[in-house]
Each structure stands twice: as structure tokens, then as C-alpha cells.
Design brief:
The protein has 187 residues and is mainly alpha-helical. The protein is built from eight helices and three strands; from the N terminus they run αααααααβββα. The protein folds into three domains: 3-44; 58-114; 131-183. Strands 1-2-3 form a three-stranded antiparallel beta sheet, with helices on one face.
Length: 187
């Protein structure tokens, strides 16, 4: 084993990230390796990848999460909990934290899930019964104001036009009249 590989293994054993190892190798040993190269060399040295087990058993991790939930507000979800654990130098996968939190705090998980935006179920009585018209202003500073219309039932695009202005209701009315004429009337 080369001297470089033994240095890499030594730093990896200290639980340093590949990027940290790369920076230390450059600064301390004047050996230039990217973080990807560090990872590949560690794999060639049969060092286990970081995505696997954390060294913490599920029971130990569960106890740690329970303790942390006691002192956390009820809005702390699995992403925030994963970040807190990693901040304490506990390498853990987010899906593992999510699984444990579902098991030990099902009411909290359900509470956070209910606070998400619920989409309304939309019903239309039929084709051409209701049309949705909207404008897009992001490209207006570049001279491209856009107006469009969608059928509420079929989600068919009735028109999508780049016009001289999207502040003039006459242009929208003209697009509407042309669409009605092309459809030979609407209900």
C-alpha cells in the first residue's frame, strides 16, 4: 500500500468527508486529489462506502432520536432531525431517520403531513364549459408578453399567444373571439 493510500485511510478513519480529506492532502502533504479521486482510492483500498451502515445500531439511533425529540418543537421533521444528527457527527441516512421517526412519533408525522397543501379536486361540466385565461410576465421585459387559455375539462390549450402587450384587454378579447369562432361557439 502506498503512502498516499495509508494517509487516505487514516483520515477516513477519523470520519472526515472526501472533500475535507482532499483539502488536507493538498494543504498538509502537497498531494492534489479531488474529492472524487479520494472516494475512488478509498474504494480500491476496500474502505467501506459511506452510504452504508452508520456504526450506530437501530436501537441506539432510536434512543438518540427520542432524546432529541423531547427537546425539539413538534414541527421538527426527518430532514431537520437528519441535519441535527449529522451536526453531532452521527453519519446517518435520511431514509433511516424517516423510518425511525414514523415508528416512534406517528402522531407528529401525521401532524406535519396534514399541514401540507392539499390540492382541491376540480370538476368541470364538460368541454368548453369553463376556460382559464392567464398571462405570463417573466419575458415581458424582453418584449415577449404571453397570454394563454386552457379548457378546464380537457386541459386542452385553446390559445397561447405572444402579443405586443399583455396589459391591453382588447388583445385578450380578440384571442377569445378567434377561439370561439374556430370552435363554432361554446356552451
Amino acid at each position: 500500500m502506498t503512502d498516499t493510500n495509508s494517509l487516505l485511510l487514516e483520515y477516513a478513519a477519523k470520519n472526515m468527508s472526501h472533500k475535507e480529506i482532499s483539502l488536507v492532502m493538498i494543504k498538509e502533504h502537497n498531494i492534489h486529489l479531488s474529492s472524487n479521486a479520494v472516494g475512488k482510492r478509498l474504494l480500491r483500498c476496500d474502505y467501506p462506502p459511506r452510504r452504508g451502515s452508520t456504526g450506530y445500531s437501530d436501537a441506539k439511533l432510536e434512543r438518540k432520536i427520542k432524546d432529541m425529540l423531547q427537546s425539539s418543537p413538534p414541527t421538527v421533521g426527518y430532514r431537520h432531525m437528519t441535519d441535527k444528527l449529522r451536526h453531532l457527527n452521527i453519519p446517518v441516512r435520511r431514509d433511516k431517520v424517516m423510518e425511525i421517526m414514523r415508528r416512534i412519533d406517528p402522531l407528529g408525522v401525521d401532524f406535519r403531513r396534514r399541514r401540507r397543501i392539499k390540492r382541491k379536486i376540480y370538476y368541470s361540466q364538460g368541454p368548453n364549459y369553463i376556460l382559464h385565461v392567464d398571462g405570463y410576465d417573466k419575458l415581458k421585459p424582453f418584449g415577449f408578453p404571453i397570454h394563454g387559455c386552457i379548457d378546464g375539462f380537457s386541459r386542452r390549450i385553446m390559445w397561447l399567444e405572444v402579443g405586443p402587450s399583455n396589459n391591453d384587454p382588447e388583445i385578450v378579447a380578440c384571442n377569445f373571439v378567434q377561439t370561439v369562432a374556430a370552435l363554432r361557439g361554446i356552451k
